[in-house]
Design goal:
Elements (H helix, E strand, L loop, with lengths): L15 H6 L23 H9 L6 E4 L5 H8 L4 E5 L2 H14 L4 E4 L13 E7 L7 H14 E12 L6 E2 L6 H7 L4 E16 L5 H8 L4 E2 L5 E2 L4 E13 L1
Parallel strand pairs: 1-2, 1-4, 2-3, 4-5
Antiparallel strand pairs: 5-10, 6-8, 7-10, 9-10
Length: 247
């Protein structure tokens, strides 16, 4: 296989709704991603582990909830959860899945850097599963400030994001711990940053050469021989888990 040409990924111009519609996610792309990498069709394992071990106090904000798998899981455990996302397509699926699961969840289309739809000091817990790393630094600062506005004093933030230096894959989303300390620490008292793992929907042995070429068009290079996989053959990568308390 010829080494694919790797594009420079501009995450500021990603159309996340196009991901869920199966359309090209950048203006200059000719074909869509082969698959939405974070859409597992089930809760993110790292979040399930958190839900098993951490006290998620109500009300909970699931920031960047996507199709709502994590949100629904928390609601099924008896929590009162609000999910927000910028994608109407993902939210439509989330609402349908929540109804099918028999849980009552509020899903709101919202800009996470503003959260203008919400009053101040409403939420006691924030879950961010793979949103923070999608933002540029200027928007990360706005996002962290917006979270501070809509949470109560002493609220808990549980954030999971990609770490830099993912074995077997080159992608533009990795975050350094110093970035978390500097930006999140502006409004939140960080109590822990530790290593964890994010699981993707990409099954290593199902990826074709054409798939790899398409990923390379948006700056993602995957080495099938070097990536780590879970028991289902899905590609995994190192991530950071951050826990912080609102000042």
């Amino acid at each position: 296989m010829q080494e694919p040409t790797v594009a420079v990924f501009d995450k500021e111009n990603v159309d996340y709704d196009a991901f869920y519609r199966g359309e090209p996610v950048l203006a200059d792309m000719e074909v869509p991603y082969p698959k939405v990498p974070w859409d597992l069709g089930e809760p993110q394992p790292a979040v399930v582990e958190l839900a098993d071990t951490v006290d998620f106090a109500d009300e909970i904000l699931d920031a960047g909830c996507g199709p709502g798998d994590n949100t629904i899981m928390l609601a099924q455990r008896g929590h009162h959860v609000t999910g927000i996302d910028c994608s109407p397509t993902a939210l439509a699926r989330a609402r349908a899945d929540a109804q099918a699961a028999g849980v009552n969840i509020t899903f709101v289309e919202s800009d996470a850097t503003k959260l203008a739809e919400f009053a101040s000091e409403r939420f006691a817990t924030v879950l961010d599963s793979a949103l923070y790393h999608c933002l540029a630094d200027v928007h990360r600062r706005q996002y962290v400030a917006a979270l501070h506005r809509v949470t109560r004093p002493g609220a808990q933030l549980h954030l999971v994001c990609w770490a830099k230096g993912t074995p077997g894959a080159r992608h533009p989303m990795g975050v350094a711990p110093e970035n978390l300390e500097t930006i999140v620490g502006t409004h939140w008292d960080i109590t822990e940053i530790r290593s964890t793992t994010l699981t993707t929907s990409l099954v290593r042995d199902a990826l074709t050469d054409a798939d790899l070429t398409q990923f390379a068009q948006v700056g993602v290079v995957i080495d099938r021989e070097a990536v780590e996989i879970d028991a289902k053959g899905r590609i995994m990568g190192p991530a950071w888990y951050l826990h912080a308390t609102r000042r």
